[in-house]
Amino acid sequence: MAMKRILILSASLLLLCNVGISQKMKIRSEKPEDHMVSMMSFNIRHGCGMDRQVDLGRIAAEIALVGADVVALQEVDKGTKRIGGVDSPEEIAKLAGGYVASFASAIDLGGGKYGNAILSKKAPISVESVPLPGKEEPRVMLVAEFEDYYFCSLHLSLDRDSRVEACRKIARYARSKSNDKPFFIAGDFNLVPNSMEMSVLAEDFAVLSAFEVKTFPSDNPDRTLDYIMVYRGGAGKKLLRKLEKGSMGVASWVQPEKVASDHRPIFTLIFKGENCVTEKF
Hints:
The protein is α+β, with helices and mostly antiparallel strands. The protein has helices at 56-66, 88-96, 160-177, 196-202, 235-245; strands at residues 4-9, 14-16, 35-43, 70-78, 100-109, 112-120, 126-132, 139-145, 150-155, 183-188, 205-207, 226-231, 248-254, 266-272, 277-280. It has one domain (17-23, 37-280): Endonuclease/exonuclease/phosphatase (Deoxyribonuclease I, Chain A, 4-Layer Sandwich), CATH 3.60.10. It has a six-stranded mixed sheet with strand order 5-6-4-3-14-13. It has a six-stranded mixed sheet with strand order 7-8-9-10-12-11, with helices on both faces. The protein has a three-stranded antiparallel sheet with strand order 2-1-15, covered by helices on one side.
């Protein structure tokens, strides 16, 4: 699988991409028209941190810190007893500021729902909940369509056979949607980079996030489970060509948050630039 590192050099930023910058940064550009999309993914463990305290404010603070255009959240409670009946997607959107919340339920839990969410700076054109295989519990992919792209939040099964089946189902779904817009998927995949399931997924998706930097467990991470990817076909193929040629760049890192959840949040920015330099790796 041919992938490259892209170094973006401009008057307003210098970003080394796909090497896992582990520092808190907020990206802004002097040329807003060069910005395509910034994406974040965060498994929030229903807001329960490594200190066993439920605090949605800490989750919202991490989101507000980078201000991504779209945010994929996993292990999200809505109205459950363990979070005091709170609608956590709406609460996090409010606390982070300027976000619209979308939610897809995977299971009923504790008087409420449990599943995935997407927070977005703009309201999606449409949202869809796509069931995914899960031997131990039902799984779901939340799909949000925006003007220029699709963005999905997913959380794959702990069962390997279910993950393989899910990877193939996701690819089929992306194939049906991606002719005119890039199709991005983000979330907790419950698989590591050198796994068999990743090789299946890599046939159809390119990893954009910093998979060299570990994401779990957050206090002392020893593996990467969280990714942001783009479907290789349709409009995604055109995007990947631009990344390879250097007319666009991608910057990714893992936020060094150790307490808010048992996963660290990941961030990816796709950016246009006249002075991108590409380097194979």
